Amino acid sequence: MTGFQSPTEFREVMDRAFTMMSEDPQMGPRLRDADTPQRFEFTDFDLVVNIRAGSPAEPNLAWEWTDEVSWKPKVEMTMSSETANRYFQGKENVALAIARRRIKAGGDVKAALAIIPITKPLFARYREMIATDYSHLEL
């Protein structure tokens, strides 16, 4: 079977990916400085996560799995968990996915595309995590 086995597994994997980005000495501070609050909706699991730059007392990134947040997203993206998994493995080009309607995007899409190069180092680490702990998600 390929694909996430449950919404719980999806959240677990995404939380680990967001933590990797936040704690990375290169990615984390750059993502914080970019300060691009984003809302992601994952249609197949009916999940929403809102992500923002951390405040000085927090890690580089802060996220909550709800729409009940105190900030407004600059960018909104809607996709399946499969598309998210493909992206983090470096196998889904966001601009192409938007053009092909695998990702629906709203708001300041240019700002979202601008931070993608910052996250590129995550792809290899995400693939490593998948290979080690979630081999059924490997593409």
Level-2 CATH architecture = 2-Layer Sandwich
Class by alpha and beta content: alpha+beta
Low-confidence stretches: none
Mean pLDDT: 95
Instruction: Give the helix proportion (percent range).
Output: 40-55%
Spell the H/E element sequence.
HHEEEEHHEHH
Number of strands: 5
Name of the CATH first level:
Alpha Beta
The largest sheet, given as strand count, sense and whether it forms a barrel, is: 5 strands, mixed
Beta strand %: 15-25%
Total count of domains: 1
Number of helices: 6
**Rg value:** 14 Å
Terminus-to-terminus distance: 11 Å
The CATH topology annotation reads as Nonspecific Lipid-transfer Protein, Chain A
Shape: globular
Structure write-up:
There is one protein chain. With 139 residues, this protein is of the alpha+beta class. The protein has a single domain (7-137), classed as Nonspecific Lipid-transfer Protein, Chain A, CATH 3.30.1050.10. It has helices at 7-23, 27-34, 81-88, 94-99, 109-119, 122-133, and strands spanning 38-42, 47-53, 61-64, 75-79, 104-107. Strands 3-2-1-4-5 form a five-stranded mixed beta sheet. Strand 1 (38-42) and strand 2 (47-53) form a beta hairpin. It is globular, with a radius of gyration of 14 Å. The model has no long low-confidence stretch (mean pLDDT 95).
